[in-house]
Design brief:
This protein is 34% helix and 32% strand. By secondary structure, it is α+β, with helices and mostly antiparallel strands. The protein folds into 2 domains: 58 residues, Ribosomal Protein L9, domain 1 (3-Layer(aba) Sandwich), CATH 3.40.5.10; 72 residues, Ribosomal Protein L9, domain 2, CATH 3.10.430.100. Strands 4-9-8-6 form a 4-stranded mixed beta sheet. A 3-stranded antiparallel beta sheet has the order 2-1-3, covered by helices on one side. It is elongated.
């Protein structure tokens, strides 16, 4: 079945793409979630209008994310952890902990958008990447210090 995508769909295409998918996938998944239209002349016109609106919205979101990234560049987080021998942490600093520290500083970031390859397990200063938009990634300085208590 030929369809026109209303939104970006993983492994299928992006907004406005005309693609062929199996009938059941279109009827049972894409259409009920309003992710696609059946490809007709009227739907081609409709998707063109939506595409313009969506592109304008995406440009605004990207600009806002870039401003937010500039603000985040000045943020430094400090996390105190208990430390064992040789500077190894008991436990580790995770994306959830960084997300919570950002929330304490009035930056609401979902833990899935804190990009850590591995959890931080040593003391030190780390640059942590934060995804604000698919095209905008900010950097936050995280200081991992020994807990005084």
């Amino acid at each position: 079945m030929k369809i026109i995508l209303r939104k970006n769909v993983a492994n299928i295409g992006t907004i406005g793409d005309v693609v062929n998918v199996k009938d059941g996938y279109a009827r049972n998944y894409l259409f009920p979630r309003e992710l696609a239209y059946m490809a007709t002349d009227s739907s081609l016109k409709r998707i063109e209008i939506e595409k313009r609106k969506t592109l304008a919205k995406m440009v605004k979101e990207k600009e806002m994310a870039e401003k937010f990234a500039d603000e985040l560049a000045n943020v430094q987080l400090s996390i105190s952890m208990k430390v064992g021998e040789e500077g190894q942490l008991y436990g580790s600093v995770t994306s959830l902990m960084i997300s919570e520290k950002l929330a304490e500083n009035n930056f609401e970031i979902d833990k899935r958008n804190v990009l850590l390859d591995d959890a931080i397990k040593t003391l030190g200063i780390f640059d942590v990447k934060v995804r604000l938009h698919p095209e905008v990634i900010a950097s936050v300085k995280v200081w991992v210090m020994e807990d005084e208590a």
